[in-house]
Design goal:
The longest helix has 15 residues. Helix content is 20%, strand content 28%. It is of the alpha+beta class and 563 residues long. It is globular. The chain folds into three domains: 283 residues, 3-Layer(aba) Sandwich (Beta-lactamase); 89 residues, Lipocalin; 85 residues, Lipocalin, CATH 2.40.128.50.
């Protein structure tokens, strides 16, 4: 075994055990696999190890296949990139400006994410849904997050709707067309779109997630909606797909590949300002409208289900995915003709980071030094770490996060329930622990007496976010009672029931959903995982409504019902 292979295997050593899910890896140069290996177990119950032939769900990494099929139909004249999507989806509402197929392809449509809407409506991902039911859910939405073409915001709805357009325009499903026109011609025998959750899939690696009390739980769902995800494949088959980008053996030739890699652009017109929800204590956004939404006519880095950008000075094409216990990444350095595929059956395995680390071993001489290369940890006393603990609000999305002490180290707590350990690199600089599935740097501004503390969170992939400390206080029973009652959303066709229990405001979605406690984050605002719930009042200061928001954009409106 070479020294390079030992370094690669060391990156995956923590999962390369008979009692752990793991990952499969393939390194591809000039269209051929030069190194591949499996780490950990594909099936813990039966003791089946992962191999390069193991089959994984690649989640959003699937979007590139959806884009390729759409562009095949464009090539044949069955779909128009600049056609209004209502040509194919007449049930979708008119929003004042047309939404085109191109908007869907580049995530510039403004359509809300259907997965967010499902979660807000209490629709469990553990069940199977008819596609038309989900189209209807989107068709009931009265507002967009922004006007079409004025902003780029990733939304799974875009590629779900592309799959529906494919079916209606061609008379065949996305899965059928992909099999006939991509997978079979390229010899990708292990690859399919997961359009039947009852299907037997040879060599499938079971998806796992970690239990809070220790050990692992199976995370497979019945949910088999396609377009935004849904491809099952192996690293060996992904290497075949990757090789096709240098010499397209499929229909459309070089022209179609060029379309796949053409990034989107925003409108030339000035960006619109979405409706703002009233909240007196909301933190201001310190970025300009152009910074938030992209400059007028700005070029994006998102192409056809692929991100086209740079990594450590080298051009790179990539797309990650994560879903139902799986994590995936395919990165390609076209000038060096080197690609890395990393697929995992444990949701916490950081495939994007691992793929980049592996590529860095092969291309070290050609790459610029890593931005966070200097990660020499320093020791800070616990009282110093304790000074950073508290609640912090994102100044872009309004989401509230926590910094807390956990087992003697500072931890970043996400509202969805997981926490990430932070390693001090200095008195006011931190970075996530090596090998973590989320990687970012946190740098605190000098603390001013009497002023809230602020820090800049810089992810290794993504845009920096400023977070500002907020002071929270408990509400008395009388104040809590003001929010109790039943609220209804016509867009979600669901009722939210708020009640007070054990001095907490609790929420039940629908008639039979579980009851969960909410977290007060200031004023009339509460948080449920990554969603912000803001109660609205009339002129008499009575609570009469609710707006539920995930990220930026106009919130979903609920009206308080009597009785």
């Amino acid at each position: 075994m070479s020294q390079l292979e030992k370094q690669i295997n060391q990156l995956f050593a923590r999962w390369d055990r008979p009692d752990s899910p793991g990952a499969a890896l393939a390194v591809v140069r000039d269209g051929a696999i030069i190194y591949s290996r499996g780490y950990g177990m594909a099936d813990l119950e039966r003791g089946v190890p992962i191999t390069p032939g193991s089959v994984f769900d690649i989640a959003s990494t699937s979007k590139q296949f959806t884009a390729f099929v759409v562009l095949l139909l464009v090539h044949e004249g069955k779909v128009g990139l600049d056609e209004d999507i209502r040509t194919y989806l007449p049930e979708m509402p008119e929003y004042g400006r047309p939404i085109t197929v191109r908007h869907l392809l580049h995530h510039t449509s403004g359509i809300r994410d259907y997965l967010d809407l499902m979660e807000l409506a209490g629709m469990s991902w553990e069940y199977d849904y008819d596609e038309q039911e989900l189209v209807d859910l989107l068709a009931r939405q009265k507002k967009l997050n922004f006007r079409p073409g004025e902003e780029h915001r990733y939304s799974n709805s875009n590629y779900f709707l592309l799959a529906e357009i494919i079916r209606r325009a061609s008379g065949q499903t996305l899965g059928e067309l992909a099999r006939e026109r991509i997978f079979e011609p390229l010899g990708m025998a292990a690859t399919r779109f997961y359009d039947d959750y009852t299907a037997i899939v040879p060599n499938r690696a079971i998806g796992y997630t970690r239990r809070k009390e220790g050990g692992y739980a199976i995370a497979l769902f019945k949910f088999d909606v396609l377009g935004d995800g849904g491809v099952l494949t192996s690293v060996e088959d992904m290497a075949r797909w990757d090789a096709n980008f240098y010499d397209n053996r499929l229909e459309g030739g070089a022209e179609l590949l060029a379309q796949m890699l053409t990034v989107g652009t925003l409108n030339d017109s000035a960006p619109s300002v979405p409706e703002e929800l009233p909240e007196a204590d909301a933190a201001p956004d310190d970025r300009s409208a152009d910074d938030r939404r992209g400059a007028q006519g700005a070029q994006l880095d998102y192409a056809g289900g692929l991100v086209v950008d740079h990594y450590r000075g080298l051009p790179m094409v990539h797309h990650a995915g994560g879903w139902a216990g799986y994590s995936a990444e395919l990165i390609r350095f076209p000038e060096q003709r080197l690609s890395v595929v990393c697929l995992s059956n444990l949701d916490e395995v950081p495939c994007p980071e691992l793929a980049r680390q592996v590529a860095g071993l092969y291309l070290a001489a050609e790459m610029e030094p890593a931005e966070h290369a200097d990660r020499s940890a320093v020791e800070l006393p616990e009282e110093t770490l304790a000074a950073y603990t508290g609640a912090y609000r994102s100044q872009s999305s309004g989401t509230v996060y926590r910094l807390a002490l956990e087992e003697g180290h500072l931890a970043f707590r996400h509202p969805q329930g997981f926490s990430v350990a932070l390693v001090p690199l200095g008195a006011d600089r931190f970075h996530t622990a090596a090998g973590g599935w989320i990687a970012f740097a946190a740098e605190f501004e000098p603390a001013e007496p009497g002023q809230p503390r602020r820090f800049l969170l810089t992810p290794e992939q993504g845009n920096p976010v400023t977070l500002q400390e907020i002071k929270l206080s408990a509400l008395d029973a009388e104040r809590l009672a003001e929010y109790a009652g039943r609220y209804y959303s016509s867009e979600l066709r669901v009722a939210y029931h708020f009640l007070v229990a054990d001095n907490k405001l609790c929420l039940r979605i629908g008639r039979y959903g579980p009851t969960e406690a909410l977290e007060h984050v200031g004023g009339d605002s509460w948080q449920r995982q990554a969603a912000t719930l803001r109660f609205t009042r009339n002129r008499a200061d009575q609570v009469r409504g609710l707006a539920v928001q995930v990220g930026r954009g106009p919130g979903l409106r609920f009206r308080k019902r009597k009785g």
